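Render this sequence as a predicted structure.
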Amino acid sequence: MRRYKNRRGFDFCDFEITKREIIASVVIIAVMSLIGVLISGKISEHQMDKNEIYNKAAKIESTDLFRYGMDTNVGNAFVYGALEAVDTVTYPEIDGEYMYVEKVKEKYTKHARTVTKTRTVNGKSETYTTTETYWTWDVIDIEDMTCKELSFCEITFGSDKFDIPGADYIETIKESSHIRYKYYGTKPEFEGTIFADLRDGTISENTDFYADRTIEETVDYLESGYGTVLFWIFWIILTAACVYGFCYLENEWLE
C-alpha cells in the first residue's frame, strides 16, 4: 500500500494520484496512442496487401477449371467444391465413419489441496489451513487417426494437403468407474471453399478449407480486417495497465 504525507492529489482507495502523476499519465497515453497508430497502420497495410491478393485471385467452381488451373500454374485461387474422405477412419466401438477421429482416455483421479479457512475461537477470528480432497477426470492418453486421402472437386489429394476442419464430440464410453474414453470426429464430407496456390499440377500444402462458405462469403471473411480491431482492444487494455501500474508506484522523482 502506498503512504503519503502532505501531498496534494486524489485519493483512490489504497493509493493516491498526484497532479503530476496525472500529467505524466496523459503523456503515457499520448505516447502509447502514437505507437498504436503506427502499429495499426502496419497491420492495415498488411491487410490491404492481402486484400489485393484475394481480389486478384481466380474464382473457380468447376472440376475442369480447377484441374486446368493446377496444370497451367494459375496461382492463387478460390475454389468451391465438396471435400470428402476417400478412406474414412473410425474405432470399432463407435458408430460412423470419419475424416478424422480422436480417442481421449481419461482417469478419475483423486487430488489433495491445502485450503485456508477462517474460524472464531473464544470470540476471536483466526485463520487455519486444512487439506481437502477432490476428484477430476484427467487426460492420460490421446490417440487419433486421419484418412490418408481426400477428394476435393472430385480430384484426389493426400490428406496433408488440407487443414482438416475441427472435430466434434461424438460420445463417451466408460470402461470402469475410474476409466472412460471420449471420442471426437470430423464428418467425412463438407461443402466449402479453399484458398490455394494452384501450381505444378497440385495445390499448396496445408490449404485452409472454409466449410459451409461460398467463394463470396470466404472473400468477405478474409477481408473483414478483424486484426485491427483485436489489436486496438489489446492495446487499450495494455495502455490502461501501464497507466495504472505507473500511478501505483512510488513516483517520488516527480516531486
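Summary. The CA atoms of residues 5 and 16 lie 11 Å apart. The chain has four helices and 13 strands.
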